[in-house]
Amino acid sequence: MPSSITPSSMTINGGLLSAATWLASPNFNNRPDNTTIDTIVIHNISLPPDEFGACGTDGVHYVKALFTNQLDWAAHPYFQTIKGAEVSAHLFIERDGTITQLVNFNDRAWHAGRSSYLGRPECNDYSIGIELEGSDFVSFTSEQYDTLAAVIAAIYSAYPKTRRHLTGHSDIAPGRKTDPGDYFEWAKLRSMVAKQL
Ligand SMILES: [Zn+2]
């Protein structure tokens, strides 16, 4: 292991990203048999909405608490509206670029919900879900773009079929979801990823 992990050293082994801190979510199951992972779905999330880095009294980041079924639903009025939600993503990227992996890429995370991509339903079956800490109303940070571009390049390498299908939650669940939102710079991301290939 290198003493410091740089974005260019990101690798994926056995479904785990080297540069991520592992935090196991119980919210996953097996992908259907013989599934080819061929799609990456970008999301944004913040808890409470539009607040970044907020933690519970236990010091746990609210988003990480949500993804591990540890969120105190009484801690904020908004949390009542999502009470009981059992959701996850493969990766969560905070505002400073820190990466947490919650579900092995080879397993099926619960990020997309009811969804369809290019006529294929159930995007969770065949996609990798990446949550950026953010909102539809604020720009994402340069650290997040740097991290995300390196992560996507690593995913392309480990799961080559994903190279053709990089999309957003709003594209696979139109009318129901709006993330990652209009502030997400797709062209910038694509050009940053291309430089890493
Ligand atoms: Zn989403």
- Rg, Å, rounded: 16 Å
Low-confidence stretches: 1-5
CATH H level, superfamily name: Peptidoglycan recognition protein-like
Helix percent reads: 10-25%
Architecture per CATH nomenclature, i.e. the level-2 architecture: 3-Layer(aba) Sandwich
Q: How is this structure best described in words?
A:
With 197 residues, this protein is an alpha/beta fold. The protein has a single domain (16-196), classed as Lysozyme-like. It has 5 helices and 12 strands. The strands form 4 sheets. It has a 6-stranded mixed beta sheet. It has a two-stranded antiparallel ribbon with strand order 1-2. The chain is globular and about 45 Å long. The model is unreliable at 1-5 (pLDDT under 50).
Write the topology of this structure:
Layout (H helix, E strand, L loop, with lengths): L11 E2 L2 E2 L3 E2 L5 E3 L8 E7 L16 H6 L9 H4 L10 E3 L5 E3 L5 E3 L6 E2 L2 E2 L5 E7 L8 H17 L7 E3 H4 L13 H11 L1
Parallel strand pairs: 3-7, 5-11, 5-12, 6-11
Antiparallel strand pairs: 1-2, 4-8, 6-7, 9-10
The protein binds zinc ion.
Zinc ion (ZN) binds next to loops.
Quick structural overview:
The chain has 197 residues and is α/β, with parallel strands linked by helices. It contains five helices and twelve strands. The two termini are 22 Å apart.
Give keywords:
197 residues; alpha/beta; Lysozyme-like; six-stranded mixed sheet; two-stranded antiparallel ribbon; 5 helices; 12 strands; 20% strand; disordered N terminus; binds zinc ion
